[in-house]
Amino acid sequence: MSADRRLAPGSRIGILGGGQLGRMLALDAARLGYACHIFCPEPDAPAALVSAANTVAAYDDEAVLAAFAAAVDVVTYEFENVPAATAAFLAERLPVRPGPKVLSICQNRGREKSFLNGLGIETAPFAVICTRDDLKEALTTIGMPSVLKTMELGYDGKGQRMLNTPDEALAAFDALVGDSGKKLILEGLIDFAFEASVLVARNPEGAVACYPLVENRHANHILKETHVPAPASPQTAVSGEEIARRIAEGLALEGLIGVELFVTQEGRVLVNEMAPRPHNSGHWTQDAAVTSQFEQCVRAVCNLPLGSTVALGPAVMTNLLGDEAHDWLAILSDPKAKLHLYGKAEARAGRKMGHVNRLLD
Amino acid sequence: MSADRRLAPGSRIGILGGGQLGRMLALDAARLGYACHIFCPEPDAPAALVSAANTVAAYDDEAVLAAFAAAVDVVTYEFENVPAATAAFLAERLPVRPGPKVLSICQNRGREKSFLNGLGIETAPFAVICTRDDLKEALTTIGMPSVLKTMELGYDGKGQRMLNTPDEALAAFDALVGDSGKKLILEGLIDFAFEASVLVARNPEGAVACYPLVENRHANHILKETHVPAPASPQTAVSGEEIARRIAEGLALEGLIGVELFVTQEGRVLVNEMAPRPHNSGHWTQDAAVTSQFEQCVRAVCNLPLGSTVALGPAVMTNLLGDEAHDWLAILSDPKAKLHLYGKAEARAGRKMGHVNRLLD
After folding, report:
1. What residue of A is the nearest CA neighbor of B51?
2. What's the CATH code, domain A192-359?
């Protein structure tokens, strides 16, 4: 690929979505000399407060989308629930990275698992559920306990129910489908030793770079802590990183994705799900890796050489949820702690307000 | 001092000036959850592109300044040549940190040297020059070679002339004074082994934190490289840091200053000048210290606990002047290099376009 297909510093990066991931992406893009333009439906978004330009409009407003496309050089996103039609509309006009096909795979749990299994990568056993009869039949093979989830949308435990009894199963079906006619997916429960993730970036000329395997600890389905490196054998770490690399290549990824994994007691590595954007479990890279995941995402979508993914040492990232962000004074008093706050006005319970990175000795 | 005099994350920091120092200050302020408001006369300033708010107006427009004062919680600056009247006007309305007194000392080479000598800190010998006769008389004590400088303004070698002969001296006087009637200052030339600097921060409750002594190498009077740590004996390093600390306390500093030093062959440390703001020679802290100078400046002006000033290891910062910024691809290909670009459109010769930090092994 010729150098002129690289997007030089000074180019304009359009970001769909205005949350904290877009904010941190915009901050690192600015550091490299890029100007970001946030497109999101909500005014005063965290990302818009640190970006050169900002469009507040609905994702299906084509006139505004066309103007946005004309104002930027490449488009990426900071969350995966951008309507597929929005990504497709933009992709006819300029590079959208990752592309609409990647977005479409990551938006649908069934497509995602089929894609992974097609690459020979293990996932939880699953079945697509349209009717109560589908569910009854799937339970005979997948069994319980298992998890019933909406096929699309849903995050941080929203849109899913644990199934332990046939009665619970049918009640969960009714609650999740309601009168929407939405498809569901039944997933077998994995008996994992710990949850993990790997970030991987690939640029359009095909360079791939993986970060080390890390462990993620959740509370109430929300990420609470990331431990770097994961407490895994070297073989397990390599196998997690290999899986991420195969996914990046299988997707012909242009950008950065977070791959969520289950690691079993015996060191087997299964993929839980993928996010086609910077990932909460990659925030440690801001202070404990040579290249942050946000800088790496900018490098990938601008077709620059990828940065070093070497960790500076063991580290822990702790999310600040709701009121926990009020502890800023204690955190700032800890010489090892690096505080990151997202500029959100209201500290609602469970809301991601910020995080803290600590490099350990 | 009570905790309620701390400015909590979410507060609004007003910054006078919109250049790269303001830009990097705004980026680090955002990371901590603060919102920046840039006040500067030029549109499309590098800092404005990454800040929540932006006022483009003249520094003497009092109506606009009053509105700015009402819109922010504290004011700081990113360059020291803000008119004294502007700082005074704002300081009647809200905290201005560093305060107008510090600004006034740093703006005037004569006041600056007198202040330093009053603290028992050595500077170059100097004399205030109003007339040709003043200059002739001063040359009899200070001698030549020496340097004739404008008393105020001037940076990167602008507004100064080296004097080697009596004829040169009179020509320099005429050239620098012109018909402005401006005061000049004659400074004896220091036979230094190297130029150095120390950054020091002090918060309103009196905590002081110094960064290590670093060496600065100039080309054409413009900073080219900073080497961390400086090639100095431990005693010399401590004496540079002690000087910075005495200055911070002597000024009752609220904020961060850069102190430029001369270190002689024998390890004597003299102060060249001070800048009441983040300093080009402190850019290494972004990638090679626990706390960047920009985060430290935010902590100091918001009266937060100061961050750790420990260096992560030896490092070199290299300025990218003019066309050197076009080397971004080679820099991004170096796994040790951290690129910082300021988003300036035009790479004029000698213009500071960005810098690179490299942590050495």
Report:
1. A50
2. 3.30.470.20
Specify the domain boundaries for CATH 3.40.50.20 within chain A.
3-107
Interface with B, mutate which of A328, A332, A344 (most B CBs under 10 A): A332
Full-model pTM: 0.96
Smallest Cβ–Cβ distance between B299 and the set A32, A305, A332 belongs to A332
> In CATH, what class is A125-188?
alpha beta
Q: CA–CA distance from B226 to each of A314, B212, B260, B268 (Å)? A: 29, 12, 12, 20
How would you classify the pairing of strands A74-77 and A12-16? parallel
Residue span(s) of chain A under CATH 3.30.470.20 come to 192-359
Burial B325-335 (b: 16+ CB within 10 A, else e): beebeebbeee
Q: Which residues contact A131 (CB under 8 A, 6 or more apart)?
A: none
ipTM for the complex? 0.95
Question: Is the domain defined by A3-107 classed in CATH 3.40.50.20?
Answer: yes
Residues of chain A with CATH 3.30.1490.20: 125-188
pLDDT in tens, B88-118: 999 999 999 999 999 999 999 999 999 999 9
* Residue in chain A nearest B49 by alpha carbon: A52
CB contacts, 8 Å: B329 with chain A: 3, 6, 304-305
Q: What is the 3-state secondary structure (H, E, C) of A163-198?
A: ECCHHHHHHHHHHHHCCCCCCEEEEECCCEEEEEEE
Q: What mean pLDDT value characterizes chain A?
A: 94
